[in-house]
Write a structure and sequence with these properties.
Blueprint: H1 3-12, E1 27-29, H2 33-38, H3 50-66, E2 87-92, H4 99-114, E3 118-122, H5 130-133, H6 142-147, E4 158-160, E5 165-168, H7 177-182, H8 184-196, E6 201-205, H9 214-219, E7 224-230, H10 236-249, E8 253-258, E9 260-261, E10 268-269, E11 274-275
This protein binds adenosine-5'-diphosphate (ADP) and magnesium ion.
Length: 296
């Protein structure tokens, strides 16, 4: 078989994780820039895109709320001792409002632009999408670790080449996810992930609030919740009731407006509006509350 034939045969084979589990190290992978472009996502090679600019405003507020940034925009040299503030849950009212899109974009932007160590976890077990966004092979992930704590967590992870970004995919599809998330092992795992690398940010792509109880269960363990609202689509009463459920367990909920549609072509822009309790308004006023007119 010639080299070309071998390469073609490899290409046709279903993707499989390379067999480095025994080493207990994450699998490394290269970002598929063409796929990110096709999905309209953040691309490290397009630093001045509209999406990259909007993500910068979101990150600045998020980092300040987590204690990473001073109001002046300088990185904090020392963060408060004690429990880390680095667990971030991304959720929304219902499916397809842009949770994965937003969680993945934030993770990419934090890692590539700010060089902040970031872990992206897919916790939307019924509708996992992180793996396909990053063209990752099938393999074990979060649920496997929760069901079988003896499994090596690092060997389930995927590390992007060229930036401090690691991904923990969803794992095997199982029933009773709520029970699993409510269990001691989930809490133990999240605490371990929070403290393992103190300056790392952990972004959890969660299921929607109104579909199951899973997001509200996870909300109890995290430091910040980013609630994605789809511009001109998510019904207001649904948003209010989902946010009430979250606020019952965690007061740190911020809203992020996604998918404003502008222009005659009806193109989608990843447009964000992020505000939360205790946040001082240091963004241009157009980037606050007036979600529908943002960016016009
Ligand atoms: N701002 C946006 N611009 C372009 N496409 C978007 C945007 N937000 C979401 N999408 C697309 O909409 C679909 C649903 O988004 P997704 O993030 O998977 O939703 P969720 O995780 O809330 O179910 C995906 O195909 C995603 O790429
Ligand atoms: Mg999703």
């Amino acid at each position: 078989m010639s080299v070309v034939e071998k390469a073609a045969a490899l290409k046709e084979r279903p993707a499989e994780a390379p067999a480095n589990d025994a080493c207990g190290r994450p699998h490394s992978f290269s970002l598929d820039h063409a796929r990110l472009a096709e999905l309209g996502m953040y691309r490290p090679d397009a630093a001045s895109s509209q999406l990259a600019l909007e993500l910068r405003a979101v990150k600045r507020r998020l980092l300040r709320r987590l204690g990473y940034l001073r109001a002046s925009g300088e990185r904090q040299a020392y963060r408060m001792p004690g429990r880390q503030r680095n667990l971030i849950l991304v959720t929304s009212t219902r499916a397809s409002e842009g949770k994965t899109f937003s969680a993945a974009n934030l993770a990419l932007s934090l890692a590539f632009e700010d060089q902040i160590e970031t872990l992206l976890i897919d916790a939307d077990i019924p509708r996992p999408k992180v793996r396909s966004r990053f063209s990752l092979p099938s393999g074990p992930g979060l649920t496997d670790k929760l069901v079988n704590p003896a499994m090596n967590l690092h060997a389930m992870q995927h590390r992007v080449v060229g930036a401090p970004l690691t991904i923990l995919p969803e794992g095997a599809r199982i029933d009773r996810v709520s029970e699993l998330f409510a269990g001691e092992e989930c809490q133990r795992l999240l605490t371990a992930l929070s403290t393992e690398i103190p300056d790392r940010l952990v972004i959890i792509d969660a299921p929607p609030v109104l579909a199951t109880t899973e997001a509200v269960i996870l909300a109890k363990y995290v430091d910040e919740i980013i609630f994605v609202v789809e511009a001109n689509a998510t019904p207001e009463p649904a948003v209010a009731s989902a946010i009430d459920e979250l606020l019952d367990v965690n007061p740190n909920v911020s809203l992020m407006l996604n998918r404003c549609l502008f222009g005659s072509g009806g193109s989608h822009y990843g447009s964000y509006d992020y505000y939360g309790p205790g946040d001082t308004a240091d963004e241009p006023s157009g980037a606050k509350a007036e979600g529908a007119s943002h960016g016009t």
